[in-house]
Amino acid sequence: MEETRAALFQAQKMEAVGQLTGGIAHDFNNLLQAIGGSLEVIERRLMTGQGDIQAYVTAARTSVDRAKTLTQRLLAFSRRQPLQPERTDLETLVDGLRDLIERSVGEAIRVETRLAPELWPIWADANQVEAALLNLAINARDAMPHGGQLTIQGVNIHLDATAAASETGVLPGDYTLLEVADTGTGMPPDVLERAFEPFFTTKPLGQGTGLGLSQIYGFARQSGGYVRIDSEVGHGTSVKLYLPRSHHAENLGSVPVKVPDQPQQPVPGTVLVVEDEPIVRMLLVEALREQGATVLEAEDGNEALTILNSPVGIDLLVTDVGLPGITGQRVAETARSLRPDLKIIFLTGYACNAVLDKELLAPHTRLLSKPIAIDQFLAQVNAMLRSG
Ligand code: ADP
Ligand code: MG
Predict the structure, then answer these.
(1) Per the count of CB atoms within 10 A, which of 57, 100, 217, 387 is most buried?
(2) Ligand 1 centroid to 57 CA: how many Å?
(3) pLDDT higher than threshold 50 for residue 254
């Protein structure tokens, strides 16, 4: 009996993994086709000197943006997306989104918001909360093709040890509960069971990605909260997002630097770039040099520390987080102890661990997620070097 159950569970797990890898491979193949094809055309036209290339550059960049969205959503599910948690006021956030939500769901759906007075501020990445709300509203719209009601509710909730234990992996404490409820079709049990799986969708090809709820699930868990769905066929669905209460008096740490519109300003100062991936390092270093910066480069933490220990002047450290051997965090820690005023930009493909959260509270520190457009990277570098 026990053995059959284990075997069944294993089979289901393998099926889910198969669906996931198949989904990724399918989407990436299309994107690679578009990028590779565009590059081929560009190369041919550059060789013959004939034909316009701008359209193909644009096509390739569009595909890169789409691939970026895809990897972000997958990282969200695996709880590895780089997050910038901050003290977030849900009333302001929901108010700010109301127009967009109303426009997205259309006129046949009534939108009601009911936020309890004195809702606790939460500690979470505000952009991700907004994305989650919007995603939930769109799911609700899809479940109400003939109209209905969408209700967004917010209440304060204290979970004691028993309540917390009944929900897997959540700690006792204060949470703000954000609920998005609809009066739509509801989900049958087999859909409900799989709704959080990446790439699981019941929508026609081209309409559903199956990455909405998986992203919300991963985000909630990574933020120290959780999410649950209650749904009944014919009666509607309610998605409850529990997000941890913020105990920070105010937002400390790195206030996002204002990025100017004109990124093509010369970069003043000396930048140390630490990146183990040679092509990425080359692209960053070249871009900085083209803008007039003095650039030092290191391919790992050891090399970086040698440079940081030398008397050479450095204004900004740009370091990859996931370096082999000494991590980017360790490089930054040492750098800061040697040079307290050093400005630091972390570059990361995914969030490695919570230590980085603390790192990011240090002054003059910024986290940029790969892939980042070179223009944006330069703009950030400039903003940091030019800020006090
Ligand atoms: P997608 O919307 O791209 O299909 P999601 O991860 O957002 O992907 O949702 C997965 C599936 O869960 C949907 O295809 C749908 O079957 C079901 N679902 C999600 N939200 C609702 C809802 N509010 N009402 C009914 N079914 C829903
Ligand atoms: Mg969706």
Answers:
(1) 217
(2) 35
(3) no
pLDDT tens digits along 322-380: 899 999 999 999 999 999 999 999 998 876 554 556 666 677 888 888 888 898 899 99
What residue owns the CA closest to ligand 1's atom 19? 139
**CB 180 less than 6 A from any atom of ligand 1:** no
> For ligand 1, atom 16, which residue shows the shortest CA distance?
202
Pairwise pLDDT comparison (230 vs 348), residue with the higher score: 230
In a domain, 202, yes or no: yes
CA angle 5, 11, 14 (to 5 degrees): 140
**If you take atom 21 of ligand 1, which residue's CA is the nearest one?**
139
> Which of 69, 135, 139 most suits a substitution to test ligand 1, by most atoms within 8 Å of the C-beta?
139
Q: How far is the CA of 281 from the centre of ligand 2 (A)?
A: 36
187 in contact with ligand 1, CB cutoff 6 A: yes
Residue 215 and residue 345 in one domain: no
Domain C-terminal end among 193, 209, 244: 244
Residue in this structure with the two tokens 């570098």, named with its chain if needed = 381
In a domain, 253, yes or no: no
What's the CATH code of the domain at 316? 3.40.50.2300
* 5's tokens: 């159950």
The pLDDT value recorded for residue 121 is 95
Do 226 and 348 share a domain, yes or no?
Answer: no
Do 131 and 236 belong to one domain? yes
Answer for the pair 216, 209: CB distance below 8 angstroms, yes or no. no
Measured CA to CA, the distance from residue 386 to residue 388 in angstroms comes to 7
Write down the H helix ranges in the chain.
2-48, 54-77, 90-105, 126-143, 161-166, 189-194, 212-222, 278-290, 301-309, 328-338, 355-359, 374-386
Does the CB atom of residue 183 touch ligand 1 within 6 A?
A: no
What is the maximum span of the chain, computed from C-alpha positions, in angstroms? 72
Calculate how far, in angstroms, residue 211's C-alpha sits from the geometric centre of ligand 1: 9
- Does a structural domain hold residue 37? yes
* Half-sphere exposure of residue 122: CA atoms within 13 angstroms, side-chain side: 30
Q: Minimum mean pLDDT among 7-16, 99-108, 201-210, 320-329: which range?
A: 7-16
| Count of the separate structural domains present in the chain | 2
